[in-house]
Write a structure and sequence with these properties.
Layout lengths: L1 E4 L14 H9 L3 E5 L10 H6 L3 E3 L2 H7 L2 E3 L6 H4 L7 E4 L7 H10 L2 E4 L14 H18 L21 E5 L3 H12 L3 E6 L2 H10 L4 E5 L2 H8 L4 E4 L25 E4 L20 E4 L2 E4 L9 H22 L1 H7 L1 H4 L2 E4 L2 E2 L2 H7 L12
Parallel strand pairs: 1-2, 1-4, 2-3, 4-5, 5-6, 7-8, 7-10, 8-9, 10-11, 11-13
Antiparallel strand pairs: 6-14, 12-13, 14-15
């Protein structure tokens, strides 16, 4: 199969979808890979490394998109890329359709098959292609949140871990999944007073066995969230409903009870955000203020640490890329139920229930498109 690796052009997105060793694995399996020149530079992989792995280099994106049967990306195609998509092409990347109607409509009209990393799901409920980036984002959320708590950026002027004789900051984490767990570990390690809220008592019990004593676990409901917001210095939104828009757990009027200079890091921004006042930002302009509360809502947080993120992403995606390349998307999805759950759009139809529900589109079972 002819596989294309274009350079990511979303603002400050320095990740690349495959490292050279991943390209080598595809070439060794009998496939041809075209990599856009400079695609890996942001993550520390130069063109020579891709050539040594057996890739063909393309000077620009046109040749990559025009000749590939499958495009492997990191982020969703942005509007400048939509016209390059070929009818019948397979796109394998993060899409987060439920938070982006224009993208969804564009892909429905493109004639492409869209397989989303974020909805590939194992029988135990694990999201293997979302997990590595959620791990990065959860850890990074604390790092960025601590940064923007500094007075220079409008924050409360607090050191996350405090010092002897001064209490540490209070960190509220909404969601006890991968993002929330990693954020809790990082915040607790820095000495903060941490509260994790989740709807699952089973998950809270699991977390009680693995998280340190300065992490409190609290069942999530509207009343409890409001009580915690009053004293929180840093709030991290890490809730996820697979394939669907994130629930709005913090409303605009709730900001009035928060402390001036408190910081919200909404990791769920890719799925529309779990804070009503969230709108996507970029690494170039990451924050904004609403009612004296700092909002950080960068839609590609792991792009800030592209070396780590790219290596982690390839570790997770490469086995699935190989399956798609070796078998073609229909047979690969038929043979792998987890990969089948990644099919979001096929032949101009929505095949993900969460996406259909988000926009009122007709939902068709993905099995209908497997030949």
């Amino acid at each position: 199969m002819k596989i294309g690796i274009p350079k990511e052009i979303k603002s400050n997105e320095n990740r690349v979808s495959l490292v050279p060793s991943g390209v080598a694995a595809l070439v060794n399996a009998g496939h041809s890979v075209t990599v856009e020149s400079g695609a890996g530079l942001g993550a520390g992989f130069d063109d020579a490394q891709y050539q040594a792995a057996g890739a063909e280099l393309a000077d620009g994106p046109e040749h990559v998109w025009a000749t590939a049967k499958m495009i492997v990306k990191v982020k969703e195609p942005i509007d400048a890329e939509w016209s390059r998509i070929q009818v019948g092409q397979t796109l394998f990347t993060y899409f987060h359709f439920a938070a982006n109607r224009p993208l969804t409509e564009a892909m429905l009209g493109s004639g492409a098959t869209c397989i989303a990393y974020e909805t590939v799901q194992l029988p135990n409920g694990e999201l293997p292609l979302l997990t590595p980036m959620s791990e990065v984002a959860g850890r990074l959320a604390v790092q960025e949140g601590a940064h923007y708590l500094e007075k220079l950026y409008g924050g409360r002027g607090m050191l996350l871990g405090g010092v002897p004789g001064v209490l540490p900051a209070k960190v509220l984490i909404l969601g006890g999944g991968v993002v929330g767990t990693q954020a809790a570990k990082m915040a607790a390690g820095l000495g903060a007073q941490v509260t994790v809220m989740d709807l699952s008592l089973e998950r809270l019990r699991q977390l009680s066995d693995i998280l340190p004593a300065n992490v409190q676990l609290l069942f999530s409901n509207r009343h409890a969230i409001l009580e915690q917001l009053r004293s929180a210095d840093l709030v991290i939104g890490g809730v996820l409903v697979t394939g669907a828009a994130a629930p709005k757990l913090i409303r605009q009027e709730d900001l009035a009870i928060m402390q001036a200079g408190a910081v919200i890091v909404d990791v769920a921004v890719d799925q529309g955000g779990c804070v009503e006042t969230t709108h996507p930002t970029t690494h170039a302009d990451p924050i904004y203020m609403v009612d004296n509360v700092v909002h950080y809502a960068v839609a590609n947080m792991p792009g800030a640490v592209p070396r780590t993120s790219t290596l982690a992403l390839t570790n997770a995606t490469l086995p699935y890329v190989l399956q798609l390349a070796n078998k073609g998307w229909q047979t690969a999805l038929q043979d792998n139920p987890a990969l089948l759950k990644g099919l979001n759009i096929a032949a101009g139809h929505v095949t993900c229930q969460g996406v259909a529900d988000a926009f009122g589109f007709k939902y068709l079972l993905p099995e209908q498109f497997l030949g």
